[in-house]
Write a structure and sequence with these properties.
The complex is a heterodimer of chains A (398) and B (375). Chain A has helices spanning 7-23, 26-30, 39-52, 70-83, 90-103, 106-118, 232-246, 250-266, 278-306, 315-337, 347-351, 367-374, 384-395; strands at 123-126, 142-146, 149-156, 167-173, 184-190, 196-201, 210-221, 225-226, 268-269, 272-273. By secondary structure, chain A is an alpha+beta fold. Chain A folds into three domains: 7-88, no CATH class; 123-231, Butyryl-CoA Dehydrogenase, subunit A, domain 2 (Beta Barrel), CATH 2.40.110; 247-395, Butyryl-CoA Dehydrogenase, subunit A, domain 3 (Up-down Bundle). In chain A, the strands form three sheets. Chain A has a four-stranded mixed β-sheet with strand order 1-4-5-8. In chain A, a hairpin with an 8-residue loop joins strand 6 (196-201) and strand 7. Chain A is globular, with a radius of gyration of 22 Å. A four-stranded mixed β-sheet of chain B has the order 1-4-5-8, with helices on one face. In chain B, strands 2-3-7-6 form a four-stranded antiparallel β-sheet, with no helix packed on it. In chain B, strand 9 and strand 10 (270-271) form a beta hairpin. The chains are: A alpha+beta (398), B alpha+beta (375). Chains A and B meet through strand 9, helix 10 and helix 12 of A and strand 3, strand 6, strand 9, helix 9 and helix 10 of B.
Amino acid sequence: MDLAFTKEDENFRQEVKDFIDKSFPQKLKDIDKRTDLTREDMLSWHKVLYKKGWIAPQWPEEYGGTGWNITQRYIWDQECANAGTTPLIPFGLTMLGPVIIGFGNEDQKDWVLKGILSGNDWWCQGYSESGAGSDLASLRTKAEKVGDHYIVNGHKTWTTLAQFADWMFCLVRTKNDGKPQEGISFLLIDMKTEGIDVKPIITLDGGHEVNEVFLEDVKVPAENLVGEENMGWTIAKFLLGNERTGIAGVARSKKAVERLKDIASSEYIDGENLINDSDFNSKIADLEVDLTALEYTELRTLAKESKGEGPGAESSILKIKGTEIQQRITELTMEAVGHYSNPYLTPAFERQGSNYLTIGPDYSHGVAQNYFNTRKTSIYGGSNEIQKNIIAKMVLGL
Amino acid sequence: MDFSFSEEQTLLRNTIQSFIQDNYDFDKRQAIVKSEEGMKQENWKQFAELGLLGLPFSEEDGGLNFGSVETMIVAEEFGKGLVVEPYIQTVVTCGGFLRRASASIKEKYIPGIISGEDIWAFAYAEPQGRYNLNDLTTTATLDGDHYIINGYKSVVSGGPWANKFIVSVRTSGDQRDSDGISVLIVDKNSEGLSIRDYPTVDGSRASEITLENVSVSKDELIGEEGKGAELIELIVDETIAAICSEAIGAMKVLNDATVEYCKTRKQFGQPIGKFQVLQHRMVDMFMQYEQSVSMTYMVNLKLDEEYAERRKAASGAKVQIAKAAKFIGQSAVQLHGGMGMTDELNVGHYFKRLSMIENSYGNIDHHLKKYSSAG
């Protein structure tokens, strides 16, 4: 056991820092965080990293990974968060990539992984349905084999950024008898196929991230099946395990705590800085202690994973604690800005010509919307209640 | 001891309930929120016709002379409908000031509230002041028979709809002294007053107000010059009592909606309400609601008590309501799952309103401190 960084690690950190400093697109730095990023904006950092060969540190080297050890990956995440780089779109890199590496055939490994690495293919996740949320295995979107095609009919929901997607990896029902888990398959569907209709869902913060996807007689070539027919549930669980590991978001939460402290240093309470108020200060301290515990829990998980054991049901801990901390940070940030959490300053409002930049301090803009939006984190990726069920069953054997 | 409502009070509740039923279902409410003006003048007229705008004023002033329990009933039922029209701002807060003003001010302004002609807003907050009502940099200096006001007021709730403001100013003393605070009536059209309006995250509207050499007659002073702090504290306590009432209305809707949803939403072959972990969460929501109702009744019954008793009641109620608002709001969204996150379902809108109530007129930390220093 050793917590120290070696000389090589520190050199690596410097290299990474210099690279980010030099290469992170200027335009993204200038973009107002409150306004929605365009598809191109979201991909621009991806393309820089692809060119550098640093786009998929979590993949094996032979498939385009970086060959970094866990310390280096940790440093990379930390430095990206410190620099406030735009988060990468996870559907291909974090979710589908490892699935294809583990379950895909040679042909799929070729075209799917290439498209993910280059950023040419934007993937979305066709999992949830209105009747299949926590109980994902009850999904009903049907795929029937007709000749060398599947014909898909059904409805997916909460599909994040489907409005930008070229492709969807989709869980479909291919068998109705037996246990529901045994009749699910994993299909890759071209979003341009006839019969696909994407409808936006507006969330309570006013944003458009999620969508409904309707599929009517959608023709999918049989070679787009990943793994065997009816083994989709195994793949789905493998994917969700990976999703949970990334969901902890330790480095970004650390950055958000720094921002919270900056805000509390600019706000006043009875003529003193809010950061010096003992009540507020102990809340921040409490948060930092929780975050430190999570950081070391994540490091232990990563260390296990690097020895080929993982990610097990323990990754549910990362999901629960990680999202609770993210939510707590947004809560305290809203508390810190006081009255100025009230204004709802949308880009549309700005266009009307109101001089809204002078309404409240700059850091207060979007703070309440962020708090509202972050409530989703304890719901998505398997709700936190479901994660506790997983730990109870898989870890504690209850 | 008696916690039951009189026949007259029940009648009042029924009146508001049928108003909400007819004019304020969720779709209608959203249409109002999204409209250019953000409120509906017709509703305001109806409030006047129903006598609601005259509720707390004495008969002598043309009102109905009702007490805090009646105000609680109105605010609670408005909370159930997420009513955005500025009833509390105009009638409870600004009306509260006017009721305590000189005979000439009462005569000049109260009829305009009761008839529905005037809408009022209370401009008290300043960017540096957080929830300290005495932390004021806006000043007023007497020049002959006029006060000259200079300063800045932030997040004035209902500001865009108001044509009259009640403004807290410093006429003497240091920035946070309780002595030297005065309360002035300022017309929106005053020269030197500039205003920027914006929507708020909970579907209401607010304004930033800059006052630059705004001149008002010294007849527009409420109470004694420099002695306004105590009056402001009293009116804010009354406002807190009304906001707590609004909150319990909103909580009730969220709790009922959540229980109903968990009874009908099926996963794993059964209603999710059958899962014990969700049952216990809903029991906690229910208990938080009941505790909030208790504190709301308590504060509304203690508004006329002596200072320390009243102050503890108001801060205590606000603490309980803020805790419950957070827990119930967050839990309702969580138990509705993805649906709770949507703009389409009413749940998220109640959550947003309750989130703003949490910090309105002071958050938990603020009121815990006030509670322990109240004596």
